[in-house]
Every structure is written in structure tokens, then in C-alpha cells.
Amino acid sequence: MKLGNPWTFGILFMAVFSYLAWNNFELPTFLFGEVKETVGIVIVDTKKVATLPRGGFSQLIVFAYRIEDSTYIGRQTINPRKYSFRPIGSKLKLRYSKSDPTKFEVLSYYQFHSYSHKKEYLWQESFKGYDELYMENGIVKLQHKTEGGKLIDTFLGQSKTYKDTTLVVPIFKPFTPENTVMCLIKSKSYKKETLQDTISKKSYWRVTKS
Predict the structure, then answer these.
(1) What's the distance, CA 83 to chain centroid?
(2) What does the alpha-carbon distance between residue 158 and residue 71 come to, in Å, rounded to a whole number?
């Protein structure tokens, strides 16, 4: 049995290898049936992951997108040859399967105009554990934890700040009074920055993590 022209096989192999190498050795996503497009937003856990086989690093992002009344979470490794670092709060365009919205394909990333990227850690102790409040570029993550640090639940939202007052609503919800779940008023005392939630009556203060 003939195996065919070895040059043809070699050229085909190099073409496939070059395509995979350019795309960080990730296989393309195939969506079947009816597809639609929507906009997602980068929320948490942006970190570097090793890139093979040459070494170096790519960025792994976690983003949220909303389909009708449900919010979905997706993860994507960004090809550094195509896109730059994507900060929390930046947006992306994706295509998803209507029959199974968990199946998606990222199409592009929107330009992000804020370069502060300042992350704040604020927390409030309680008798049964504590809360950690993360705020960065308009994205809010509130985690309830036990005394031992075990995660109980997580709230994900968006914020808008007006002078010293920050309003927080669930992610993808409009900023209206009925959607507001936190109203944080900033104050400073004894050189400490404090946020007072007028709704829950809890106080959060700035913590510097090493």
C-alpha cells in the first residue's frame, strides 16, 4: 500500500502545526444549529498561564454574559499574538449556540479606555465569618466566607460612583433604585478609608494585602 507523497504529508503537517501554534494550540470551536451574538464583560480571575511549546505566558480571563434572564460564565485563554492584556471591566463580543448558550466562540475584544486598573480590597468582620468586597473598574465581587476562609457564596455586580457615593446593582441590571443592592458612602477617619452600606448597615474598610 502506498502512503502517498511524503512532501505532501510534510507540507500538510507543517500547515496544521503552524495554525495550532499561532492559536496557542487551541482547537477551533464549532457551533451547531442557530447561533446568536451578545456582549460579555470580563469579571474576575485574570491571570497568566504557561504557553507551550515555546514557553512564555498567555492571559486566562473569566467573563460573564447574559442570555434572556440567565447569566453565564465563560473562560477564555487570550492569544498574546492577537490581543493585548484585557483588564477586569473590559468587554468582548461572542457568538453562542441558541440551543446551548454554554457553547460559545469569542469573536473580538472591545477597546478599553481606562488604564487605572486599581484594585481595592475591603472587608467587614462578623461573628460567623467575614465578607470580602472587591472593586475594580466598575466590577464588584462580594464574597461571604466562614471564619476559616471557606467560601459560602458570591455576589457579582456592577458599580457607578457619584462623588463619595457608589451604587451597586447585579451585573447586567440597569442602575435604577429598585435594582440597587448596595449604596456605599466613602469616608475617612483615623487615616482609614471606610465604606458604609446604607442598605445593609455594614461597614467595610480598606485593607492592604501583602
Answers:
(1) 16
(2) 14
pLDDT band at 22 (very low <50, low <70, confident <90, very high): very low
pLDDT value at residue 122? 75
Cα separation of 187 and 192, whole Å? 8
Q: What is the pLDDT of residue 28?
A: 54
Tell me the residue type at 6: P
Please provide the average confidence, as pLDDT, over all residues in the chain.
80
pLDDT tens digit sequence for 89-102:
899 999 999 999 99
> In Å, what is the CA distance from 160 to each residue of 20, 45, 113, 121, 202?
41, 21, 16, 17, 19
* Stretch 21-49: mean pLDDT: 69
44: β partners: 62
Strand order in the sheet with 35-50: 70-78, 57-67, 35-50, 91-97, 104-109
> How many angstroms separate the CA atoms of 209 and 27, rounded?
38
Give the separation between CA 132 and CA 124, rounded to whole angstroms: 7
DSSP string covering 52-106: TTT--EEEEEEEEEEETTEEEEEEEEE-TTT-----TT-EEEEEEESS-TT-EEE
All 3 cell numbers of residue 113? 479606555
**Whole-prediction pTM:** 0.74
Q: How many CB atoms lie within 10 A of CB 170?
A: 14
The C-alpha atoms of residue 16 and residue 195 are separated, in whole angstroms, by 54
Report angle CA 29, 32, 38 to the nearest 5 degrees.
Answer: 70
